[in-house]
Queue: 2 jobs
Job 1
Amino acid sequence: MRSVDEHLAEILATVRPLAPLELELEQTLGATLAEDVTSPVPLPPFDNSAMDGYAVRADDLAQAPVTLPVIDDVAAGSTDLRAVGPGHTVRIMTGAPVPAGADCVVPVEWTDGGTVSVTIDRRAEVGHAIRRAGEDVQAGEVVLKAGTLIGPAQLGILAGVGRRRVLARPRPRVVVIATGAELVEPGNPLVTGQIWESNSYTLTAAVREAGGEGFRAGAVGDDPAELLDRLDTALVRADAVITSGGVSMGAYEPVKEALSPLGTVKFEKVAMQPGMPQGFGVLGDDQVPIFALPGNPVSSFVSFQLFVRPALDRMRGLPAGLPATVTARTTGPLRSPSGRRSYLRGVLSDDGTVSPVHGQGSHQLAALALADALIVVPEDVTEVPAGSSVEVIRL
Ligand SMILES: Nc1nc2c(c(=O)[nH]1)N[C@H]1C(S)=C(S)[C@@H](COP(=O)(O)OP(=O)(O)OC[C@H]3O[C@@H](n4cnc5c(N)ncnc54)[C@H](O)[C@@H]3O)O[C@H]1N2
Ligand code: MOO
């Protein structure tokens, strides 16, 4: 059996970052920048008011309260500005350019709000409530570096420096195919021997959560030819493919049967629990990575977290490796098969403890749904007493 680390190492040695594309701004959420982005102008581009109030010379407020004539009204977006001479003031709104001559803004709350003349009650320092040009970004300054993951705030600054398109690695497109003759789409009735298909829903959602674009291709039965056909269609639009089921030792293992003869996909036993049977390789001229995950629902979910998620990180041009762990104290005893690394399902608490959920079978999807953590038990450990320190992956 190969170790979890060996299996992941092979995956990460095979999977490559996706080629960068010119993406429209609206398409960039979750993409990874592939260029340094600079601002063509300073931000803010001009001195502007931080408050609704009056632009004035600070010197004119020395004897406050003072009453001054209001010579103009400046809204945000105004371009035609009158200079503010000594003893004058203009009414100004937040975001409006500060007219020449004025050196501070007095908020309307410090005044009587007059529009012809205004009485200002308090003095203000030079620069008060003025947002200076270039205070956020200088012209030519790099605002985001290549390799940055684009979230809402990053998307905001891209727009803020006037970009319509940027060079970025897109979110990987991942097609998910469930296999098994017993599978029925949720919403349809079951007969004896059938179960509702759930893995493709879990895995597609997991892809999306991991920053990919997940597509469900629908389940196929136990016929390897049907699977090959479905894969052909998937490869047209996929940067990676995930299958679930059909990889263990049974008489009908369509994934193994369909892919083994190709010679580009290997089936291995990985020393872990759950998730022991694993297939991985590449398909087609474009060498699209395929993850053939075991069918047990908890097994496919855990396999995704350990192997597919890091591969998606690599495709996105992000640092990739096993999920980070935190240390916690287990509230209950743990058991693990000798020679296999276990990923038991648990609930983390704020007090630094983790409680194993009831139902640790790799078919127990309801127990998985209660968990928010995977408790890692190393290969050489078979029993962990309650109260012990353990490493935990947050889900
Ligand atoms: N003789 C052996 N039998 C098994 C071994 C073994 O080493 N020797 N390994 C076991 C382990 S461990 C696992 S994990 C499973 C993996 O089996 P497959 O990947 O071939 O998956 P299936 O047989 O198709 O299904 C397993 C189980 O999961 C249910 N399933 C499958 N797909 C879905 C789905 N999309 N949604 C919901 N549930 C699904 C399926 O009905 C089976 O109950 O093999 C063990 N056997
Ligand atoms: O290794 Mo299997 O994945 O236990 O159910």
Job 2
Amino acid sequence: MIKVQRLVGGYTYPPIINGVDVEIEQGEFFALLGPNGSGKTTLFKLITGQLPITEGRISISSKEIASLSKLEKAKKIAVLTQEAHVSFDYTVEEIVSLGRYPHQKGLLKQLSKKDLDVMEEVMELTNIHHFKTTPFRMLSGGEKQRVLLAKALAQEPEILLLDEPTNHLDIKHTFQMLDLLKDRQQRRGLTIFAILHDLNVASLYADRIALLHHGRILDVGDVDTLRKADQLKKVYEVEVTPGSHPTLPKPQLLMTPSYTDSSRPFYFKNSYRIKQTKNYFHIQFEHPLRTISNGVIGDGIQWVKHVCNFHVDRNYNGSEPKKDLQSWMTDYSIPYVQAVGMMTAVMLEDVVIVKKEIEGIHMLAIVTAGVGNAVDITKRSFLGAVQTVGTINTMVFIDAHFTDGALVNGYMSATEGKVKALNDLKIEDPESHTLATGTSTDSLVLGLTQQGEKTPYAGSGTIVGRGIGQMVYQATHEALKKYLKRVHEEGYRTTSERVGVMR
Ligand SMILES: Nc1ncnc2c1ncn2[C@@H]1O[C@H](COP(=O)(O)OP(=O)(O)OP(=O)(O)O)[C@@H](O)[C@H]1O
């Protein structure tokens, strides 16, 4: 749709834009990215005709842009620039009406019913209706931006060119504006070419991106192009780690500042406090740990300072366990936004804590174990109602630095240690009468100080991985023995719990 070929141009010599080739397809959302001064606005001005071209060619639907009359261009293309000077004291409505100019007929150029309908629609869409009689100059920067977008949409263009359209907008209005543009793109086939600064926002909305560097296109492609961390580092001179959006298949970038964290390194052995009551087990760290967990609170990969395991009645049947945990933590002044939270009906006095130092790496494993819900994952086809004193909650903390891959690896190592403990104690799935591999509600948190050299692996082929497996084995084995003893001595199985131990 828009074809830019061997484009050279810009204010100075040598020119700012120095041989740009790029094609924007019909109906796509194309984002132009690049650092300050890379030439984005200059390229934009060359495309919109605000600056003369020195060399090369720009065509729209195969027609050279220079050959189109002003009116022909205005019917096809609307432009939203950063430098929108509105010199007269126009009202918002009057500004929007200017967008209809290319469509007005006759010498008097009066607004038709269609013009008024379109204006109403775009003012509604951009949420500026309520100040349509306000003078433009009296609006905030963000409000002005929405009015200028309404004017551009009133033009009913095939192509919309936008230079940093979200510049003055807060996150609500940024997302509102881009959602609106995306909707126009998807429903009406609007072609969008936008200069954007926020790479994460570009990733969420653009179909393709181009990265401009020193007046040349360094790379162009779909948004996964943003996963090329080395390229981004070269262009922006910032440490970038590509991650992923949790619900959309789009990259999201995490930037690392270059200042050093003055609280590190710290001595792991002195960096935590444990509090244990009948109601809860709480380990508090002085410095946040990088955690991977399936806890009711703090699941996924996080940084947390608190890990809690709350005792619940064996008949606990809360429909909103997350809310319950948040309120219990609040009662005990534990900030749940910095926490991993688990629940168990196991007696907390049976908790087992194992500390180890393996090849200079300090490790800590804490386990509460019950096996009322023991399951052989390979045999069960369905589960009955969950029994409550039947959970193995495992907490492992290590003074090491893991990559995200190593966190997953470490999680596997911990699970292998747990399964081995269950097997050695011959814990049985009461339905299948085979060796259990876990319980149906097990929780695990693995926390790392992220100190020292980064480790990419933590499986059984590594010292740290074996350390995790061995500690979890030892702690789980001991905790299970305490549980089985209690079952044996106290007739713990009075309700519907069943604990099978194979003979
Ligand atoms: N009117 C001008 N006259 C001369 N040089 C200019 C003019 N406007 C911009 N430049 C220069 O052109 C280069 C590219 O500027 P441009 O505005 O295109 O960058 P940009 O990528 O849009 O930057 P930003 O992200 O800061 O908006 C810069 O070195 C700038 O100093």
